[in-house]
Amino acid sequence: PRYVMQVAAKDGQLLSAVRTLATQSLFNDRPMCRICHEGSSQEDLLSPCECMGTLGTIHRSCLEHWLSSSNTSYCELCHFRFAVERKPRPLVE
Q1: CATH topology of domain 3-88
Q2: Cross-referenced SUPFAM superfamilies, in alphabetical order (predicted)?
Q3: Average pLDDT for residues 80-91, to the nearest whole number?
Q4: Is there a contact between 24 and 31 (Cβ–Cβ < 8 Å)?
Q5: For residue 85, what pLDDT is reported?
Q6: Mean pLDDT of all residues in the chain?
Q7: What is the predicted pLDDT for the residue at 78?
Q8: Distance (Å, whole) CA 67 – CA 7
Q9: Residue 85 phi/psi, 5° resolution?
C-alpha cells in the first residue's frame, strides 16, 4: 500500500519548515540532492539528518519517496532516526 508521510527533522520541526542550505557541491557550484542529483530550482534542499557536505542535502519529496520505498525510518549513512508518521492514502485524491 501507498502511504502519505510527514517526516520530522532532527530538531523536531517538519521538513517543510527546515531552512534551505547553501552547501557547495564538489562537482559544481550548486548544492544538489543526494538522491536525484538535481539542484534546488524546483524544490528546496534540506538537511534532515547528521550527514554533512554533499551527502547532507536532499529534497523532501526524494526523502519521503526513499523512506517509503525502503520501508525504513533512519538514514542509511549516519543512522539518524527520522520521526516518520505513515498514514494510509485516501482512496480518492
Answers
A1: Herpes Virus-1 (3.30.40)
A2: RING/U-box
A3: 83
A4: yes
A5: 82
A6: 77
A7: 95
A8: 9
A9: -115, 110
Q: What is the pLDDT of residues 18-36, one digit of tens each?
A: 333 444 334 556 889 999 9
Question: What would the grid cell of residue 70 be?
Answer: 525502503
Domain boundaries, the chain: 3-88
CA angle 16, 18, 24 (to 5 degrees): 115
Q: What's the grid cell of residue 17?
A: 519548515
For residue 11, the tally of other CB atoms under 10 A from its CB is 8
Residue with cell 519517496: 65
* Cα distances (angstroms) measured from residue 71 to each of 7, 19, 58, 61, 85: 13, 26, 18, 15, 12
- Give the chain's length: 93
